[in-house]
User: What shape does this take?
Amino acid sequence: MDPQQSQSPGQEVLRRRSFAIISHPDAGKTTLTEKLLLYAGAIQIAGSVKARKASRHATSDWMEIEKQRGISVASSVMQMEYRDCIINLLDTPGHQDFSEDTYRVLTAVDSALMVIDAANGVESQTLRLLEVCRARNTPLITFINKMDREVKRPLELMDEIENALGMEVVPFTWPVGMGKSFAGVIDIAKSKMRLFKAGEDRVSDSSDTLIDIHDPALQERLGSDLKEALAEVDLIRNAMPEFNLEAFLAGKQSPVFFGSAINNFGVREILNTLVELAPPPGSRKAIQREVLPSEGKFSAVVFKIQANMDPAHRDRVAFLRICSGHFQRGMRLKICRNGKEVRTNNALSFLSQRRDILDEAFPGDIIGLPNHGLLRLGDTLTEGEQLQFTGLPFFAPEIFKLVESADPLRSKQLRTGLMQLGEEGAIQVFRPMAGGIMLLGAFGQLQFEVVAHRLKSEYGAEVRLLPARYSLARWVSSTDSVALKKFTQENIHRMAEDVVGAAVFLATHKSELDVAQQRWESIEFHALREHAGLIYQSELAG
Assistant: This one.
């Protein structure tokens, strides 16, 4: 954006919409992301993750392994302009093995778009992500996808979603038919119907045509399918609550849309709803105080770090959510964790792997800062004020593997890769305090596969992953430094450090943890590590 054309900071904040797309794998999330970019004019032709043997791939899937498998394993950031609003769209991994990355993304947005496969309804991973949204009272828009296939009945889906969400759902559109007989959707508020037409990879204006639902020609053409849909709409109007904006913004009510992302159908309604109903950037909680987006001084939090977005340069980019102030390229910022200064001459905006140098940005925007290990997940950057934003935890991993280089001459590359991927949060890396080979912690097998692939392709380090005897990990802390030192020495063969130097107790089974907790009452054992809490004790003490 041309800085000379920007409005006042307050007006710019009101123009922002920052949201994440969440779903179970294969619900169509990446396809919908692509079509949102298409309708906003950010791209002119959509790729397809299904056609991954061809040269085109989804814009949001930039990593080589994503192109090979047709899945999203890393979050992507995309900015676009639509109806005079600046939309920051974050596409998240659908696979449960990468739920920690998705959790961190959800801390950086003001609303979320949940995609549900109409044939499968609410699935297990969707439930986990919903718990995160509910905990943060994140406003949620629901898109029921794949209506052009044989799917569950709409009323059954409504009941299932409402029970799973634990909140009211309010249909804004309603489907007429399904599968091969899918004819379109009724706009309930307007009592008009938008006819379905199988889409292409470009925007079609024909989908904007609305026809009165009482039009005799329409009723004759669609017959019993339209009659049944109109009866269901009457039932909805009488049985379901009316849409309440305050309830939606409080995360207690979700508007629901039906469509088919692969066919460009229902996409424009989603964009319009984001612009009209989704909230602009709100206040953010720091340990010291609450930070308002309207404040003049700049503040931001690092919620994601991605290594090797440009493999040719072996770079690492820290993604920042701006919380307050007016960012201008070249401004000097302080890392509140250690007081070090960050230069911002190379600040970036994103359209997935495409990046542009950024001149200015405002609260709600996501910007990237290339760095070489200076910034960490959870870091707060300000113009000088000491702040620490909260709510960016790391969860204790559930499965473990030992990792060693298949080629001893590539050990240096392995260490570099593990350090960078650990800082990125792609996997948790532990260095045993008693020495020995490194330990990886994850939530699912796919995480190990992706990390092994990336170590080989991005760092030239082929690895062997070996069974590990550990089954759980807990970060440890204590207000009694002498007791903590004694505990560490007596349990040295069960102790490790993570990538930021936080002490971790490793156990082969839960009984070992129970014994340690009973014996060491002055030691706290943490199932999650939050940047603002127990970590960096040695760094802060120094």
Notes: The longest strand covers residues 299-307.
